[in-house]
Amino acid sequence: MSRKALALEGGSLRCLFTCGVTDLMMDEGIEWDGIIGVSAGALTGVNIVSGQKGRTAEVNLGYVNDPRYMGFRSLIKNRSIFNFDFLFGEISDTLIPLDRETFKNSPIKYTAVATSCIDGRVRYYEKSEVSDIYPAVRASASLPLLAPMVTVEGEPCLDGGLSVSVPYQRPLDEGYGKVVVVTTREHGYRKEPVSRAMARVYARAYRKYPQLVRAILNVPRHYNAEMDEIDRLEAEGKLFVIRPREPVTVSRTEKDVDKLRALYGHGQEVCREALPRLREYLEG
């Protein structure tokens, strides 16, 4: 049997679509040899590897309106719109415990994608190859301007999506025969160029990191090229892609729990519809 990998796009709270998809996959007994995630996809991937179906949804639905977890209070106090100290601390330790032992000992190869602030290039952190994977997960989900840099293995890093938006190429390069991609945008979605005003904001905020600024400004071009390549590989049968059927109106920092629940349900619906084709692809 070909080795199977799951590649997860980010999108902050648009990850409710992803966890709807992956929770159904877990219900159906679909297993993976490797999981690679960017940003919120990296966070979701942790809960898949730890075997905790529903945990991503439970955390976000339960705490999205808790100022300890997300919001301007956290941005002012912690310099981060999402309070990762609370997420990796009290939530993961006591409120909705993360099964760290299962995650650590799982044979699934887990990789978090981050971006180096020094050279603006991608960094792949695999849990068995680093002393502590959690800073890499945190860095992967740390949005520019909305979170501080995170030191990973001695290097300042930020959001993995600044260098690789959808991490499909890594598992292909590693020889996985079957690669399933979950995106959080509908087919045909493309990013617009960064505005001049925002380009100036980034240039000021990261004036000591010119390669990081260059990476941020190049995100739309790289994203659109990745989407074109995903379409090509999907048509050739080299990837299986699961994506929303319609434009996602949930924002990165969405606080409407009903909209988030609906997006989770949409993920389950789309995955359920795709199951026969997905199984054929994985077993072929």
Structural notes for this entry:
By secondary structure, the protein is α/β, with parallel strands linked by helices.
SS strand fraction: 5-15%
Which class do the helix and strand fractions yield?
Answer: alpha/beta
Average of pLDDT = 96
Q: Count the strands?
A: 8
Runs with pLDDT <50, length 5+? none
Report the radius of gyration as a whole number of Å: 18 Å
Q: Which word captures the global form?
A: globular
Helix % is 40-55%
Question: Total number of helical segments?
Answer: 11
Q: Span between N and C termini?
A: 9 Å
How is the topology of this model organized?
Elements: E1 4-8, H1 15-27, E2 34-38, H2 40-49, H3 55-63, H4 72-78, H5 84-95, H6 100-105, E3 109-116, E4 122-126, H7 134-140, E5 150-152, E6 155-159, H8 169-173, E7 178-182, H9 196-205, H10 210-235, E8 240-242, H11 257-283
Parallel strand pairs: 1-2, 1-7, 2-3, 7-8
Antiparallel strand pairs: 3-4, 3-6, 5-6
